[in-house]
Amino acid sequence: MRAPNAQPQPVGGLARRLAHILTTRGIDPTSTPQGGPEPVPALLAAESRIPARYRGATADHPAVAAWVREIAAAGRPGPGGAPGIAQGRSLLIAGTTGTGKTHQAYGAVRSLIGAGVRLRWKAVTAADLYADLRPRPGHDGERELRDLARCPLLIIDDLGAAKYSEWTEEITMRLMNRRYNEMLPTLVTTNLGMADLRAHIGDRVASRLNEMADKVILDGPDRRRPHAAGRRHPAAATA
Ligand SMILES: Nc1ncnc2c1ncn2[C@@H]1O[C@H](COP(=O)(O)OP(=O)(O)OP(=O)(O)O)[C@@H](O)[C@H]1O
Ligand SMILES: [Mg+2]
């Protein structure tokens, strides 16, 4: 049995994997990080949950970086002294295809963890969210909705991209209303302009988002197109 004040430790395969990654990066896995705020194992564990394409993402947009600082500063100390995510403002990142919305969202998670914030977070695309929550035998969608509603930081990627129905509007409303009521930070990305988003998610969700979220509009080129400014090839990134 674990002593009441002991911190949860990575176990088994995860611990071995982390030790291996640290060793390959020239870091002694048994050493304690010195001098900097970055909890390396926490960042590595989080990186393993971030999709490969965004594992090195940086929140380099000034407004996203400012939001990260605000959330980090509002954290309250948790067990072990590291600040945990508390109530905070949400962030809506809007922009056309390929402007870097998902990159900024995962970059924000990485920055928060790098800043030493203890972070329970989930990321889901709106389309996957509705697919996961669809009523089906043997699956407790209500429980999953509750978990998402309570998660300290939730990323909803591509809001407005899934096919609309009254049911999707109701699910979005129930999820966002709970997070709005509890003032939990939610990071939303969308390809839609505000008028189209309002039409897609309904007035009541749009009204809540409007109050709870800071807005960032990414208006650059599609970074997936060859020669787009700032496009980074994985090979170039590691060269
Ligand atoms: N600031 C950045 N620095 C380097 N690479 C970036 C940056 N922003 C985005 N990219 C890269 O550009 C590509 C497109 O970015 P991303 O997937 O975040 O766009 P998006 O706006 O989410 O697109 P969509 O609307 O289609 O979902 C990805 O390969 C991503 O890694
Ligand atoms: Mg995206």
From TrEMBL:
<dbReference type="InterPro" id="IPR002611">
    <property type="entry name" value="IstB_ATP-bd"/>
</dbReference>
<feature type="region of interest" description="Disordered">
    <location>
        <begin position="220"/>
        <end position="239"/>
    </location>
</feature>
<dbReference type="GO" id="GO:0005524">
    <property type="term" value="F:ATP binding"/>
</dbReference>
<keyword id="KW-0547">Nucleotide-binding</keyword>
<keyword id="KW-0067">ATP-binding</keyword>
<feature type="compositionally biased region" description="Basic residues">
    <location>
        <begin position="224"/>
        <end position="239"/>
    </location>
</feature>
<feature type="domain" description="IstB-like ATP-binding">
    <location>
        <begin position="89"/>
        <end position="205"/>
    </location>
</feature>
<dbReference type="Pfam" id="PF01695">
    <property type="entry name" value="IstB_IS21"/>
</dbReference>
<dbReference type="InterPro" id="IPR027417">
    <property type="entry name" value="P-loop_NTPase"/>
</dbReference>
<protein>
    <submittedName>
        <fullName>ATP-binding protein</fullName>
    </submittedName>
</protein>
